[in-house]
Amino acid sequence: MRGVILYGPPASGKDTVAAALRQLDDRYRQFRRLKAGPGRIAGYRMTTDAELEALRASGCGVVWENRRYGSVYVVDSHGLRRELHDGIPVVHLGQVDAVDAVRDAFPDAQWTVVALTCPRDVAEVRIAQRQTGDTVERLQAWDETEEIESADLTIDTSETRPDRAAELIDQAVKGSVTAPE
Question: Which key words are in the record (predicted)?
Answer without folding.
Answer: Kinase, Transferase
